[in-house]
Model the fold of this input.
Amino acid sequence: LAKTTQPISMDSYEGQEVNITCSHNNIATNDYITWYQQFPSQGPRFIIQGYKTKVTNEVASLFIPADRKSSTLSLPRVSLSDTAVYYCLVGEGTGGFKTIFGAGTRLFVKA
Amino acid sequence: DTAVSQTPKYLVTQMGNDKSIKCEQNLGHDTMYWYKQDSKKFLKIMFSYNNKELIINETVPNRFSPKSPDKAHLNLHINSLELGDSAVYFCASSRKNTGSSPLHFGNGTRLTVT
Done:
């Protein structure tokens, strides 16, 4: 399984764009990159998933360079309610898949 | 309608007891999981079932026994509870057993063993 490395914590202010980068140097050909958000006392919630280039949805954008050894989650104009832990995961696209969560990035948005 | 629901939300019990946590998903997903989140907030996979068949069993003591009566349910039974079992247990499901199928989590069961 590809291991991921992301910053332990980040601070931001309301209205700013936040970019969280995740390194996954040994990502395999079949691996997808998935980001989750977790609030206290809740289960992780799926944010966005990508395989290569750029993916955008109503919540975030995911930038993946050509070598796929890293990815950047971009949250536009964060609000206080975006304070949470963000997990980057890389997993196989084949059977027997198991999602391994790392320590995540604790984002704290200040007023 | 809650997509992945687990009960109870809180469970306080004494060492040595046996307890169960129930999980149900109404998403029509093929695969269900149990995760454990300890006090350091690391999420660790415990079990995975695909179409009622156990496919992942991650070095979990055999005091923990999952049971999947059908594709929509995955229950977790724990025998002879120990202090170290105190954690938050999350149930999750995914459409398929692949990395391209995102997980949908329940809101967790906080187990406290005294």
Summary: The mean pLDDT of chain B is 92. Residues 19 and 99 of chain B are 31 Å apart (CA to CA). Chain B is about 0% helix and 55% strand. The longest strand of chain B covers residues 43-50.
